[in-house]
Amino acid sequence: MTDRNAIPSAFSASRSRFDAVDLAQDLLDGYEVRTGVAEGSDPADTNLRYLWTDALAVSAEVRLAERRPELDRDRSIDRIIECVHATLGRHRDEDGRQGPLSGDDARPTAGGLRIGKTRPERRVDEPFDETLEWERDGQYFHYLTKWIHALLDVSERRGDEVALRWARDLAETACEAFIERGDGSRPVARGAMSLSISSTIVPTISWKRSIDLRRVLVPGGGTLDPLDGLATVTRVATACARRGLDVGSLGSHIDELASICTSASGWATADPLGIGGVIGSGLRILDALAEPAAMEDRALMADLVDFALLDARAGLEVYERSRRGVIGHRPGLGFRELGLSEGLHRARRHRNRFESTASSIRDAPRRESISRSLEELSRFESLGIWIERHWIEASRRGLSEWQDRLDINEISLASSLLQRAR
To answer: What is the mean pLDDT of residues 69-86?
Structure first.
């Protein structure tokens, strides 16, 4: 197995100036060597998979391919996807169960995907340990949504229907497994994105489930999961409708997720990763509104976009005040802050093109409120650039705050830099 510390960093003390895209490419190349994706890597390293990081890496590779079409990045994209499905789409080596989680190699995402934690999942007869649970394997809803977006990015760039079908399989599986319905019922597929919310029982989303999805390991999902789920499933359904593919049960899942979102008290948070996630989810729903195949209840979806961006603004102001004048690098904060910087770059891009899509929002006050939020969020993009430079300096200095989470930190930085370059 490769000595990870022997892989040269993308940074050096002499590299005082850099091109964002060049640096992102170096970061991705280093990650792919460390995790066995690059040609000539140690095959044993391909087992070093972590779903969140791999999902960000695939999406970053897609953006790098857009910026540098002369580079052959498709091979890297295909290799990461292959490694994830061959590793996280199957039971662990030490597990008595064998084979793909879906039971069908042709549908590698239909059984979900493991997180990629170092410890095996908690057994039925083991007591719950909150600290240890963070190190145990299983499935997370918000990790599955990350992989869905990665597959959609690949599908949209290549016109790849196989990747879209994998994304649809995973979206259906995630919703059917993680959405907890108070009456114990299962969703009824209506085959359309109607958002006709009629149930008086508001569902919830569990936080973590077992590898086979049969057990809840940690109940009560994060407050941002429903919004993330709604944005993700809406994007999948819209992509399927655009290509004439059956949306399956996605319409009913959109209804369920929207009902959770409309009953939520809000999505304001001072966590930088959370703020970036709220921005990203709101903007993905905004993108869907501009699609001819979008759901019928545009007014409700526009409301949710507005609320999400307003909450992101509120959280950002709190976060910015708390970060003002702080010089040090705090452990575990690198990838979280870089998730915010990526969200701020997204907001700037959407502000620049909002006029061309604003007509999809018929309510003038709502349209104006969204426009103001995009303008306000865009003004914080300089904070995103500061975050990138702040953590680049941490990497140059080899600080433990960066090195301890090297893979997720470097891929988050690459993702943010490539989002800024779009």
So the answer is: 95
